[in-house]
Design goal:
This protein is an alpha/beta fold and 384 residues long. It folds into 2 domains: 5-248, 3-Layer(aba) Sandwich (Aspartate Aminotransferase, domain 2); 251-381, Alpha-Beta Complex (Aspartate Aminotransferase, domain 1), CATH 3.90.1150.10. The chain contains 13 helices and 12 strands. Helix 3 packs parallel to helix 4. The mean pLDDT is 95. Bound molecules: pyridoxal-5'-phosphate (PLP). Pyridoxal-5'-phosphate binds next to helix 3 and helix 4. Pyridoxal-5'-phosphate binds at residues 79-81, 104, 106-107, 146, 150, 175, 177, 197, 199-200, 209, 211.
Length: 384
């Protein structure tokens, strides 16, 4: 791959010269809005038979995402949760998984309320601090982490965990949603599977849901091809196209959103109403060195805690330009209240143990002008 990451995103991984001038030379990849495909004759196929199995627009998107994450294959699904749900079909009743305690709330809900009824066992760990090897059991089959985590931004050392996973023959899964392939590539650091909520940075415009599984293992690829064709949550052609369009601007969006996050993190750190700011780009961030070793940037997600719960609620009531909404990774800056939104289904004692309190707010910076964002925060902070 001779081109830079930025160029590869814009040209969607197509080697312009090598490729035949297909699709009338269309610069934008066509949307193949079709459910089925006519066969030339018995025993022959155009390569496509039925869109649950595969569709050209989805196939192109899957190739793009596979290459951006350095995998051998990718699977595009109708949401991040559809991707994780499909991935969990790789396991059998009685299997045990070691999972990060501070995961996206929806993942915890899936494990506890859907997978457990199928006799999967889970042990929740803080991968930054706990002794991982001592928690491995005879039936342990996989390790599942996010780094940084949602929302407390725990950062764990991907290479170190990969070594443990290899030694014990465990499938190592990393949800890479928070940094996107632009800033971090877990497969290059020893992971077997990468998950993305494509709804977030890859899509980038808060206008569609999508999810991805990327792998560099042929055995996993083969099983997942069978599962996606059988269960049917593949991403629709139009949504696949929206993702292709979003990815074209991934680089420039990530750079601008990260710049905004850094400036806002610094500004928040100086406010008397703020108890702590958790942003990997602050030198005070505990895992700053690990982050620098394994990622090319610090991302656009930050979490902060106010002195009192009432202040957090007041900030949410007074922000104007910044929207009080769930989700992240889009061009618009969004503020989230994990306690009642993303992590509402996580039991209160677990939430508090993970450090999520009523005074915790999560911010996903967009690509607006930084002065306008700071102005909005200033006017909100004056009222709390
Ligand atoms: C949003 C999110 C998901 C779930 O993705 P959806 O597209 O909303 O289904 C999974 N993991 C992380 C880290 C997320 O932020």
């Amino acid at each position: 791959m001779k081109y830079s990451l930025q160029t590869r995103c814009i040209h969607l991984e197509q080697d312009q010269k090598a490729e035949k001038p297909e699709h009338f030379g269309a610069i934008s990849y066509p949307i193949y809005q079709t459910a089925t495909y006519a066969h030339p004759r018995l025993g022959e196929s155009t390569g496509y038979d039925y869109s649950r199995l595969q569709n050209p627009t989805r196939a192109h998107l899957e190739q793009v995402v596979a290459k951006l994450e350095y995998g051998i294959d990718a699977f595009a699904l109708s949401s991040g949760m559809a991707a994780i749900t499909l991935l969990m079909e790789l396991f059998q009743p009685g299997d045990h998984l070691l999972v990060e305690a501070d995961l996206y709330g929806g993942s915890i809900r899936l494990f506890d309320h859907v997978n457990k009824k199928n006799q999967y066992e889970f042990t929740y760990l803080n991968f930054e601090e706990d002794d991982i090897e001592s928690k491995i059991q005879e039936n342990t089959k996989a390790i599942y982490i996010e780094t940084p985590t949602n929302p407390m931004m725990h950062v764990s050392d991907i290479e170190k965990i990969a070594q443990i996973a290899k030694k014990h023959n465990l499938l190592f899964i990393v949800d890479n949603t928070f940094l996107s392939p632009y800033f971090q590539n877990p497969l290059l650091l020893g992971a077997d599977v990468v998950i993305h909520s494509g709804t977030k940075f890859l899509g980038g415009h808060n206008d569609t849901l999508a999810g991805f599984i990327v792998t560099n293992r042929e055995d996993v690829q083969e099983k997942l091809r069978f599962l996606i064709k059988t269960t049917g949550a593949g991403l629709a052609p139009f949504d696949s196209w929206l993702l292709l369009r979003g990815i074209k601007t991934l680089a420039i969006r990530m750079e601008q959103a990260q710049k905004n996050a850094q400036k806002i993190a610094e500004w928040l750190s100086e406010q008397k109403q703020v108890k702590r700011v958790i942003y990997p780009g602050l030198p005070s961030f505990p895992q700053y060195e690990v982050m620098k070793k394994q990622a090319r940037g610090f991302g656009a997600m930050l979490t902060f805690e106010l002195e009192h719960e009432e202040q957090a609620k007041d900030v949410l009531n007074h922000i104007k330009l910044i929207k009080f909404a769930e989700s992240l990774g889009g061009v618009e800056t969004l503020m989230t209240y994990p306690t009642t939104q993303t992590h509402a289904d996580v039991p209160e004692e677990v939430r508090l143990k993970n450090g999520i309190t009523g005074a915790t707010l999560r911010l996903s910076t967009g690509i607006e002008d930084i002065e306008d964002l700071l102005e909005d925060l200033k006017q909100a902070f004056e009222k709390i």
